[in-house]
Design a protein that fits this description.
Bound molecules: zinc ion
CATH topology of the largest domain: Quinone Oxidoreductase, Chain A, domain 1
Radius of gyration: 20 Å
Number of helices: 12
Strand content: 25-35%
Order of helices and strands: EEEHHEEEEHEEEHEHEHEHEHEHEHHEHE
Number of domains: 2
CATH class of the largest domain: Alpha Beta
Amino acid sequence: MKAVAKVKEGIGLDLVNVDKSETLNEDEALIEVISASICGTDIHIYNWDEWARKRIKIPRIIGHEVVGKVVKVGKNVKNLVEGDIVASESHIPCLKCYYCKTGRMHVCKNLSLLGIDVDGGFAEYFKSKEISLWKINLNINYEYCAVLEPLGNAIHALSEANVELKNVLIIGCGPIGLATIYFAKKLGALNVIGVDISDYRLELAKKMNADYTINAKLENVEKKVMEITNNEGIDIFFEMSGAPVSFEKGLKLLKNDSLAIFFGIPSMPIQIDVTNIIFKEINIKGVFGRKMFDTWFKMEYLINKHGFPFEKFITHKFKLEEFEEAFTTIISGKCGKVLIKVS
Ligand SMILES: [Zn+2]
Ligand SMILES: [Zn+2]
């Protein structure tokens, strides 16, 4: 089968031909991939940065945002049958640790990740444990379902906040920020302000119904936010860029007794003025992955009720063989979500 893999050190990836292994563990399913989408993590692997060099053991087939059809199941797979359409959860819990045993598999102590610690889904087939698959119950084009994994990050973040009638600031209008904007509006946020440094992404933020967009490179974010909020500031701040400067910036714009949700991962340790947090009684919540599977249920309810503009959110589609072009598109920053159509 064809697959996109990291086979040697250095920048780039390769299209390889490998045997599709049909030998399954008892708790695994074999999935024929319909489509996969590219995530920031894949770019780290493509660029072979410090994180990737430390974490990835080569050769490794990458890709963790995947949808496909079950073609074979192991002996102990209980709730999936051949023909089911499944999306990857991407977090692979150990099922044995304290967190797995107490309903928090997504922060498992021995967590491994699809396409990072085990071979992933930028391939014609991939294997997965049943526990890390979500059977699709949505009546939408299945090829869109590869992006449910990142959409779930947005739903998880929103589940930690009550945005109704609140002034909401979202810094970072990449795919997860964009999905947060869309659903924050649907969940009744008063004003949703999207901040980014790319006009292309701010245009997408408008398409996701952001009330205001601010280009942090060209405009004074603080001044504009204070104008929008009658000098009161923000109720809920979602940090979705990982840009070191934005954490402090967002905290500064928050009202007293407010909430900051941190999702974006900065590439280095950052400094934050904690006196700001103490005197303003700011609550901070980190969000990682998706709650398994509370987030997935909520996501399906929300998509069924409010729809989701997948055709605006996914701006580019490529074939597996065109992966190089797909990665160049993402690195250019002029895109929303980029989809790789496999079958
Ligand atoms: Zn990802
Ligand atoms: Zn565990």
